[in-house]
């Protein structure tokens, strides 16, 4: 084999080895996941506080951590006033990492029993911390501020609300 061919093969082998070493392993298997509320969901605003005791998020995660929440439910809500919360604008996007999680496009409609009943719509991005490891993770969201969506919200609704709670995430996608 000529010296040129030997150098070319050695260079190609070194480049392949460098790419293999530089490419991180995937964090997840990729596939479906379910997140069940494990710590009550709290919503605080200037007109009161609500606590919800049940919530499920269903969706998927890619091997690279891209998150899609395709269905969501929130229930068992009580508070300063009667309240029911409905997730809207699905699917939501986001990312799921080994230490943090973000849900983008988050939006909920809350029917609040004040002034004879009003609708307040809030949205934004939720960012939280992830702990544990597959096959069961915990995502904790603490005092995350969401903004009122003016279109469809009653004028009396506060401009912001804060949300907190924790979800246990399981599924073959992890």
Automatic annotation (TrEMBL):
<protein>
    <recommendedName>
        <fullName>Secreted protein</fullName>
    </recommendedName>
</protein>
<feature type="signal peptide">
    <location>
        <begin position="1"/>
        <end position="27"/>
    </location>
</feature>
<keyword id="KW-0732">Signal</keyword>
């Amino acid at each position: 084999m000529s010296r040129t061919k030997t150098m070319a093969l050695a260079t190609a082998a070194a480049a392949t080895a460098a790419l293999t070493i530089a490419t991180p392993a995937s964090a997840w298997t990729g596939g479906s996941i379910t997140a069940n509320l494990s710590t009550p969901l709290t919503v605080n605003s200037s007109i009161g506080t609500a606590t919800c005791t049940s919530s499920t998020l269903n969706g998927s995660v890619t091997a690279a951590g891209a998150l899609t929440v395709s269905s969501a439910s929130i229930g068992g809500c009580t508070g300063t006033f009667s309240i029911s919360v409905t997730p809207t604008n699905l699917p939501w996007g986001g990312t799921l990492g080994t230490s943090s999680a973000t849900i983008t496009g988050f939006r909920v409609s809350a029917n609040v029993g004040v002034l004879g009943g009003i609708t307040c719509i809030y949205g934004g991005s939720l960012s939280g911390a992830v702990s544990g490891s597959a096959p069961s993770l915990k995502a904790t969201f603490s005092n995350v501020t969401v903004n009122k969506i003016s279109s469809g919200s009653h004028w009396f609704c506060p401009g912001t609300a804060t949300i907190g709670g924790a979800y246990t995430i399981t599924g073959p996608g992890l």
